Every structure is written in C-alpha cells, then in structure tokens.
Amino acid sequence: MTSYSSFSDGTRAVHAGLPDPEVGEPFLPGPVFAAPYHLDPVTGPGANGYARTEHPTRQALESAIGALEGAPTLVFSSGQAAITALLLAVLRTGDTVAIPSDGYFTVRAFADGFLRDLGVRTLLVPTAGPYPDFTGVRLVLLETPANPGLDVCDVRTLSEAAHAAGALVAVDNTTATPLGQNPLALGADLVVASGTKALTGHSDVLLGYVSATDPELLTRVETWRKQTGAVPGAFDAWLAHRSIATLDLRLARQTANAAAVAELLLSRSDVTGVRWPGLPSDPSYPVASAQMRRIPGVVSFDLGSAERVGRFLAAAKLVFAATSFGGVHTTADRRAQWGDDTPPGFVRFSCGIEDTADLLADITAALSS
Ligand SMILES: Cc1ncc(COP(=O)(O)O)c(C=O)c1O
C-alpha cells in the first residue's frame, strides 16, 4: 500500500487506509458482511478465517487510523470498549493506575467499580496538575484536552516523569483526534480514543481504537479483543472509514466556529467560565498551542442554571440538545444531567460545520431570549 505519510493532513485523511488503485475496483471497497469465510479444511485458514479475528473492512479502517496516529491500530465497538480493553489487558491485581480526575466520567466509574473489585488501586490526577510522584504506578492514563472541562496537559513532560518511575503512558486522544495531536510522537506508549466523536463526525457510529508502537503491548490488547470480542461490525467500520476522508475539512470549520463562538461568549456578561484552549486568555493556551496542531471545536461555559440552559436550547435553531460531541451538527450538553461533577448550568458545546455567521447569529439570539 502506498504511504502518504509525507503529505499534509487533508491529503493523508483522503487517502488513509485506501488500497492501491486497481482497474474496476472502487476507491474504498464496500463492507464485507461475513462471520466465517470459506476455509481449506486441510491447511486451515488463509488470510481470513473468522471475523472476530480477521476482517478486511475492519483492517482497512485500522490502516487508516494507524496512518493518522502513526502506529499499528486496533479498532473496537466503542471508545469504552477500547479503554476498558486497554486497562484490563495491562493492569494486574495489586497495580495502581493513574487516571484523570476531570476526564470522561465513565472511566472513573469503571475504576471505582470493576477495577477496585479486581484489586487495582486508582490515583485521581487533575489534568492541569498538580501531578503526583508516579512511583509504584503501572499505567498513567492522560486525557487531553479533558472532557468536559478542557484542561490540557503536557504529554511529553508527563511521559518522561511516568517513564522515569517505570509506568506506561496512555493518552485518550478523543477530543483532539490524530490530526490535532499525535501522543505517540510526544512520548506516550499508547493512544486510546473514542472514534464516535470528531474522528467519524456524523453522529452515526460508535467506535473506539487503541494504537501502540510496541508490538508486545498491542498483541496483549489484540488477544484481549480476540477473547472478549468487542469488535465493530462491518457497516460501522466502513462508515467510519468513509467519514475519515473529510476529517481535515470538518475539523477546520469546527475550529473556526469554536474560535468565533468562544470570542462571542467571552464578550457577554451573562455567560461565565468560558473555556476554549485556543483562546490566548485560557489557562490551557500555553501548553495547547505548543503541543497541538489544531484546537478542537469544543467550548465549555456556564449559563448559571439548568433552566437558562433549557431556555437557550429551546430558542436556538442551530444547536441541538445532545450528548456526545465532534459531529457536523452543533450540539450542546448540560453535563450535570448525567451526574457528571459539573455545576447545573455548565454546558459542553460542540461546534459543527454550519456557517460561522449563521451560528453566531443563532447563539446571540438564543442567549438573549
Ligand atoms: C474523552 C472520551 N473518551 C472516551 C469516551 C467513550 O467513548 P464511547 O462513547 O465511544 O464509548 C468518551 C465518550 O464521550 C469520551 O468523551
């Protein structure tokens, strides 16, 4: 397969994981719907035996994401399937895992339940620090930018500290996407992410992945996946691959919209706590601007109460009330409704790819309603 690694983001996204051109064949081969494949009963399986282990549509998607993350990749049926696979493949009874105190809340719930029951200790670490001594920690999981508060951490510095203490480092790259930052190039051992968000961006598939350069580490995760079975189906894998072609374009518009929305919100006295790592006044700006190649389209802010968030969303024509983020439609999520540890009026706002002027006018009208 031709390598496009020397090209820029848009070109790499369009060509990621595509087979070399062949006359009469499509650019992106359609989904292969198969569980078992024909076998040679004497010699056993060839390239494909059974779809939980081998699947051409899934493998093409893995090549695509792997090309963008810069390492071999395994895809999973959701982001949580990928994160829990990584944690359970790496951690043993008696180990300590460091996880963000302000990251995706289901990871904390998993650590506080199943991991604790397995005898794994959890150290909760704020993304913006202060950071503990990692001595005795087996795995440090970072999430940057953290969802939903959007703090950012320095992956290179933390990876050096964790490695010096003998710990592995994994980075949740969901919000940034591989076009926003490449944690493996910054020193992390593993990348884990939900592809449900901006990577696929159409709010129509659940997807997760793990990438790693160390073949031994990735084989552990692959064995876990093979034996527990959380693989995405053929159609989801194909939809995801098809969506990646437009990743660069989608992110560009989302970032431009987020920059304009953050400025608008900052200028209003009836909105507080505006966070966007691309704002020069944001506490995350110095690290984000040095570490990230682009800032994602997610902004957070506080409207003071659940009722005001409700009024805002009822009045807005271009902002859907929905959880998740990173899609082509602009959405807003009042996180406290999920039991996330946020104030009642806290909103995670995900900019879509609508026209910037339309979005600003709609938000302005809805906030003033
Ligand atoms: C940062 C982060 N990681 C992981 C996940 C889990 O992904 P999924 O919903 O695809 O299981 C999410 C979901 O919101 C997330 O925001």
UniProtKB/TrEMBL annotation:
Q: Which Pfam families match?
A: Cys_Met_Meta_PP
InterPro entries assigned to the protein according to its UniProt record, in alphabetical order: Cys/Met-Metab_PyrdxlP-dep_enz, PyrdxlP-dep_Trfase, PyrdxlP-dep_Trfase_major, PyrdxlP-dep_Trfase_small
CC annotations in GO: cytoplasm
Q: Which domain of life is it from?
A: Bacteria
Cofactor(s) required for function per UniProt: pyridoxal 5'-phosphate
GO biological process: one example: transsulfuration
For the modification N6-(pyridoxal phosphate)lysine, the affected residues are K197
Q: Which UniProt keywords apply?
A: Lyase, Pyridoxal phosphate
Which GO terms of the molecular function aspect are on file? cystathionine gamma-lyase activity; pyridoxal phosphate binding
Mind telling me which PANTHER family this protein's record contains? CYSTATHIONINE GAMMA-LYASE-RELATED, TRANS-SULFURATION ENZYME FAMILY MEMBER
Assigned protein family:
Belongs to the trans-sulfuration enzymes family.
- The molecule here is called Cystathionine gamma-lyase
Species in which this protein is naturally found: Actinoplanes italicus
